[in-house]
Amino acid sequence: MSPKITTELLKQLRQVMKNPKYVQEPVQAYIVPSGDAHQSEYIAPCDCRRAFISGFDGSAGTAIVTEQHAAMWTDGRYFLQAAHQMDSNWTLMKMGLKDTPTQEDWLVSVLPEGSKVGVDPFIIPADQWKRMSKALRSAGHDLVPVKENLIDTIWTDCPQRPCKPLITLDLSYTGVSWRDKIVALRSKMAERKVMWFVVTALDEVAWLFNLRGFDVEYNPVFFAYAVIGMNTIRLFIDGDRMMDPAVREHLQLDSTLEPEFKIQVMPYGSILSELQAVGAGLSPKEKVWLSDKASYALTEAIPKAYRYLTPYTPICIAKAVKNTAETEGMRRAHIKDAVALCELFNWLEKEVPKGTVTEILAADKAEEFRSQQKDFVELSFATISSTGPNGAIIHYKPVPETNRTLSVNEIYLLDSGAQYKDGTTDVTRTMHFGTPSAYEKECFTYVLKGHIAVSAAIFPNGTKGHLLDSFARSALWDCGLDYLHGTGHGVGSFLNVHEGPCGISYKTFADEPLEAGMIVSDEPGYYEDGSFGIRIENVVLVIPAETKYNFKNRGSLTFEPLTLVPIQTKMIDVNLLTEKECTWVNEYHQRCREVVGAELERQGRHEALRWLLRETEPLARAQ
Amino acid sequence: MSPKITTELLKQLRQVMKNPKYVQEPVQAYIVPSGDAHQSEYIAPCDCRRAFISGFDGSAGTAIVTEQHAAMWTDGRYFLQAAHQMDSNWTLMKMGLKDTPTQEDWLVSVLPEGSKVGVDPFIIPADQWKRMSKALRSAGHDLVPVKENLIDTIWTDCPQRPCKPLITLDLSYTGVSWRDKIVALRSKMAERKVMWFVVTALDEVAWLFNLRGFDVEYNPVFFAYAVIGMNTIRLFIDGDRMMDPAVREHLQLDSTLEPEFKIQVMPYGSILSELQAVGAGLSPKEKVWLSDKASYALTEAIPKAYRYLTPYTPICIAKAVKNTAETEGMRRAHIKDAVALCELFNWLEKEVPKGTVTEILAADKAEEFRSQQKDFVELSFATISSTGPNGAIIHYKPVPETNRTLSVNEIYLLDSGAQYKDGTTDVTRTMHFGTPSAYEKECFTYVLKGHIAVSAAIFPNGTKGHLLDSFARSALWDCGLDYLHGTGHGVGSFLNVHEGPCGISYKTFADEPLEAGMIVSDEPGYYEDGSFGIRIENVVLVIPAETKYNFKNRGSLTFEPLTLVPIQTKMIDVNLLTEKECTWVNEYHQRCREVVGAELERQGRHEALRWLLRETEPLARAQ
């Protein structure tokens, strides 16, 4: 990787920072955050402005350019990559290190008195604006919104904002019509006495209207906003996508509908002016509901007294609880995904000893097998295909420079998943194609014990996921081992592979309580720097549990694994398992045999079926 | 309990709310919070203003009196008690119920436009002021500080503020001199670049100066503030306590000292004016460190730009980590406490069958045995002595109206502790003096499994206590049982039995990480409404653990029980224990035998020793 030469670009940016065509008054600093206008985790190429100006294209980072300096804040995952990708114009600010200044402190230290700091108000979330603005003001500076994005003014070959055709999902996939979702949303709005709800997150728009798109890689979403009133529905979306007869039919755009279900389609770019009009027309006590992570621009459109901000929107919460159609779809998707992985692992077992399989080839092969399955749409995230020391890099993605060949001497970790029209998958398996060492087996077995401890946990209705995080670590902790990531995240139903508001992590506290129908991942791991990485991940469904005393009718919950892919028994030190844990593994494998075996049979994949049967032989415990 | 008649008192209060002698402008509402000026958990009689005006004397509650209404907010523990103690002038606001308005909402609903709401700025913490003030302002009202406490103006027989003699603790108890504590504090201040630190919590003043007092029941503290500068020490304290030669000697008040260790003694009441003088004299960048729970009055004394507020003060954090002298003292205190409880349980075993022992008598007897031990000072909290259904009331304290007789048919729960000059104890044991039912044993055994899971837990250095909370619940959860309180709290060293900043609870997230030397309680329970209560509580010390891999040199921690009182084996269903749990119980009892047995022997308490030996026979597991 050679760094991007940014001297000329920075010169141009510094010119537009003073150009009255773009800024009311010159700005002495300009902030370029990572995100898009919807605070998405995955962003479209046209939104990769920070990567354009700096060369650094990791998933997290904020650039700030002043007249004299250019600095980049990123976290420990990206120190090396950022240092490689940026030229000497840039100073790397290593977040998390003691001596690294915050963006605010750094700005205060370098800016001349009474400076203006500019930022695109659509890209910065309102809560971040508030914090930054306060800090700057108390040092005599001003944070100012710059309407035109200054990077866009100098990005001559900026890709177009994607505007791909949509797909409609019928009731067999969604279980609930968009009309009924609007009705449910309005009843939540009535409960909180709000008159308007602004949908800003892309997956929330997609979920609400039972539509999917392809504007962003991995996430089946499309660029749009929606504003839902008690009697109106406005959808802000561009392109001729609304000309598609299937979409028109799905949204009943040409039908005679009660006015409160008539969708007004408006240009994507008109959201701000429309919202300002809503804001200007509010009567006292008419509140507008927004996520507290919505952009500063949209939040400001509503006068402060009329805003109703919450960390999780009612759509975010409703979307997390899957209905029967969705859980059945997720089950189907996971069976197909397991078929693809049985094929892959069977293939790897034969090919790896030849020394011809690289991490990239293995990832491609995984995609190939998945794409053979019905209703396959795309991958749900960039495949983590890593062997040996690469496995210890938690967010690794193989590129030609790092691409390692799989061998019978190293552990192989594959974290991958796909979008099927009926569901989203995300599964990690750790395999050895030769003979694992006693230490590797020991570590694997602790991770497995942690995985089982979460998966088999029973807990009262209303428990928050973060309370289960330590269960995943207990066996590792007993031996002085740990892993530095959370244990699980919410998973969408043919939607984003990472979604709120629930999860299993020591890092969050504000997660919403788990309830039956929610779907999360269970993925403890262990990483030995420079040697190997181990992770065992299933997607699991929250289901009611049977308990002796049922928490005085509060209700009991537990998890059901949706992922049905064998856990390599070769890696297990059976003597470290309790009888209960042994039984869990055997019952899990029995289920893989029955369910996935039947599908392999149906698809005539006999070799993969033989592999599955061999890999799911019951564990025998030493007495 | 008959309610307190408050008609006349409320009339008087409403008069002073309009009396220009006390208020600049009439206030239309007056808030009477629970606390004192130091945000203490336990308060002195002169600070029980809310109990005085309303009759309700539970530990938590806020009264608000307007021209027309008087309302009391309290939580579920106190609904019944508050309803009994208050007359019809009062409306009970049941916190936690869906339809109960917040104080702010209620005020907004009853106040005439543009009202003033008064409160004593010394009693309300700054963070609470901020919240309340904002809510009132947005509805067109004003929260105003009323300098003179209006309750005090009508409380004609208000008890004097206690001002009891102090005791000094020498190095053998504290391990560190007050001078060295000041040096350490100043180095923390230098790190954060603050010039002043204001000590507002009573236990922090006591700890800093190695002094103890008796101004508040159960907590060995005294009314005082301190302001520590980089070169000055100011102690605000009343009475002739500073005339005591032992205190003068201890604080070196009459010695020739370097000026930065010279303590300036000032009247307790002068804190505000002195702090205002400090605030007025600050140069730019000179910050003043305060707890964010300090009173609004003291916080306001420092101009906003100069405040440095943190949830935990450096003293709170330093105090939590006990040094060798303190842990050795805590060990001694717990051995003496165990001797007293062996005597008590031996006595109860003989007396209960006679039907003459009530809950109050048992509590008195426990105090009697404790008071026979060396360096006994007082109890560390009101003894919870409860049998049968009373045991299910988590914060029960026996009073004549509820006083139940212990019997061989009911479970008895005793949660009690004492202050010794060398340490603070807090222990709960649950006993049956007849034959427990299978269900009682089952529940007890789950609680015991939870207790052991926490006590034997191994975790990496830097883990926060709240991450261990679920370990205590796992066995109960498996059967659909739970308890609705946290699992543990920090314990002071001859100081408050409840202290921050660490603990083990699902309710907190902002606790400080556990480190070796911290002391917490481990007290899971189970409560069957109307039938019985079970709790098993030890005080445990955080110690380094030996692990195979030691978290890559991050270090491993675990707990050592300081409490050494037998856990009644009669209550244990051994078949529900794992082998490891059985071994834990047997090793714990072996340690009780050795350590407490030796002390019982030394004190010539042979009958209690025989009881101890019998109660600590090893468990035998059915094969």
What is the C-level CATH assignment of the largest domain in chain A? Alpha Beta
Tell me the overall shape of chain A: globular
Residue-averaged pLDDT of chain A = 96
Which radius of gyration of chain A do the C-alpha atoms yield?
26 Å
Count helical runs of chain A.
19
Structural class of chain A: alpha+beta
Instruction: Name the biggest interface.
Output: A-B, 29 and 29 residues
Write the CATH fold name of the largest domain in chain A: Creatine Amidinohydrolase
Low-confidence stretches of chain A: none
Percent helix range of chain A: 25-40%
The CATH architecture designation of the largest domain in chain A is Alpha-Beta Complex
Strand numbers in spatial order across the main sheet of chain A = 4-3-2-1-5-6
User: What portion of residues of chain A belong to β-strands?
Assistant: 15-25%
- State the domain count of chain A: 3
- Beta strand count of chain A: 28
Could you name the CATH homologous superfamily of the largest domain in chain A?
Creatinase/methionine aminopeptidase superfamily
